[in-house]
Predict the structure.
Amino acid sequence: MDLIAWFTDPANWTGENGIPVRTWEQIQISFFAMAIALVIALPVALTLGHLRKGAFLATNVGNVGRAVPTLGVLTILASIPSIGIGNLAAVLALALFAIPPLLTNTYTGIASVDDEVQDAARGMGMGGAGILTKVEIPLAVPLIAAGVRTATVQVVATASLAALVGSGGLGRYVVDGFALQDNTLILAGAILTALLAVLAELVMALVQRAVTPKGLRLQSRSEIEAQEIPAAAAPA
Amino acid sequence: MIPGRRTAKLALLAAAALVITGCSSDSGDSTDDASPGGGGGPIVVATTNFSETKILASMYQQVLQANGVEASIKELTTREVIIPALQTGEVQLTPEYLGSLTEFLNKEANGADAPQVATGDAQATYTEAQTLAEPADLTLLEPSAAQDQNAFAVTQAFADQNGLSTLSELGTYSQQSPITLGGPPECPKRPFCQPGLEETYNVDVGSFVPLDAGGPLTIQALKQDKVNVGLVFSSSGSVAANDLVVLEDDKGLQTAENILPALYTPAVTDTITTALNEVSAALTTDELQQLNSQVEIDRQSPQKVAEQWLTEQGLLS
Amino acid sequence: MSATVADASNPWISWSYVQDNWSELVAAGQEHIYLTVGSVILAVVVAVPLAMVIRRSPKLSGPILGLSGVLYTIPSLALISLLWPVFGLSPWTVIIALAVYALLVVLRNMVVGLQEVPADVLDAANGMGLTDRQILTRVSLPLALPTILAGIRIATVSTVGMVTIGALVGYGGFGTLILSGFQNNFWHAQILTATVCCVLLATLFEVLLLVVERVSVPWTRKQVT
């Protein structure tokens, strides 16, 4: 079948349009986008959650984010002369895409720690920061980690959109395949992105398990997922 | 059962039924049911999503309507899709480019390795084209003087810095510093694109960036220095407007790319032939460039721009 | 600054753009609504029997949800273009692709919603002699309704955003305007207006479905976001 021929053709594994390069581009774009999103969303959400302030904002930013089309943000950013077409626009758009669910899930995780636990910790003499880091975050880890994991996987999958604004990554196979009417190329792009997203899911699941305190590992996965708010749009 | 819930469920099912029937009867854009036009039937004009072909297709459509021939436009994708559709009569007319069409028909008839028959000589190429078109159920009308060839542009700064004004000079320059080339995704496979540069001009293409066909992505990439050389079109309005410079095709890599209407032979009538030939006769490269500018830069609609031009030429009465 | 020549007259906010292109915006909106509603309804229609199957055999929950989860990772860009050779340039290409994504959210919320019905309530219903069907319709569904409706709401709002990707095959509602605006020399007014319209539509659906949620479950105070 054409697809097997494509995957076994060494030409598709070398050069700037080869699978390794495009995959690495996708990983890079996703990585930087998530890094920016985490740096922005986590401190804000942790602080607000700890202080139990800004509930309306924090829980609804996830809803608002879900309503914004990533394609729109991507093209808007790429049309701004100082950003321009290419990878930067993609990284920024994906970061914006990941921030709302991260914010909401992290906030919910921290804020849902029982007030009594906070009181108890205070009673033991812990200060605000201590309570946050030693008590609330460990308790909230399942939900926060689940949120980070979902956001990461969706960023990895959505990064394929970047090819529409002159970026690299696995989306190139899909976009170019469509321009060339080459279904094999499109299929290859789809499969590779799905594989990468699944890989990201597995890696993040391991990370989540590693950071979850032992006592909390018993919560079932579907219970966690039902609480968590899915990211803005599904992988675009 | 709580009444509210039951009503809600029924409403949901009713809505589903409505939407699904609505969707299947939504025939989408333009004419899906144009019958393979026998002479005198309605004409479906196929176009790619390249703005210039949209302008040309709109010109053809409007001038046919003005002459009593029912015509509509269908947007498709590439030549590989349009020509087969033309040959079966699924669409009946499309604006084409002499050299590229000739080579396409040549490869279709004689295989992918067939020697090139299109040249820079428009008349000779047209003769070849007609020979290839006839057995393929296609009729090619008079080529216009207006042409649109592949061209390769660099920024003014790049040209000045490296003393470049021709593609031969680019070839020499690239031996020292391989260039980054930008163009449509099919460029690495098109004989008049990357392979042509490499073989005819000895250009060392270090890297290729897939963008669009001489559109805003390519122009931006040139200006942002993401690519050194970009594929543009010789009739595009964007080159001059953006401080770009086209390098001269001093070895004549590009063939004659005069614009001409290609028709499904059974659909041809005298009225159609006369009307379309009038359009071809009136169009020049300079005018085409102006029309392209209005669409590409001023963002006017191809249909309005075509209408204006046809009115000025007195072809719509 | 790498600006194109016409940037002087390429404002982001342009009332004259809206006026001149009102009919295109309205047509795009209608298409957007068709595609969104069609996808979600299709997802619900597929989810209901699957949820019933899982309810009967809970062990299947893992594989079924797992499969939808895997489908979820396929980028919609790719799924849409893969369905294109099958369904051609028709709305179905987009509707079916987006229904796949909506399915995960809707199904998962249906399953979890039904699972969360307290066991003692089910016991009581059993004890009262209700048949399984009656338990489902009179007990489980009403209790699961908030979660189910929330799932539908989330799926709908997500779908509004994803419809834009359908622009690739010419059925993207506001997305078609976004993409063509971008390709039309980065037409700021069209890109921003179409994006804003998309957000407004998503908000409209969110509000509407929130109202539906509240109206259909007046006895619950607790909101599942």
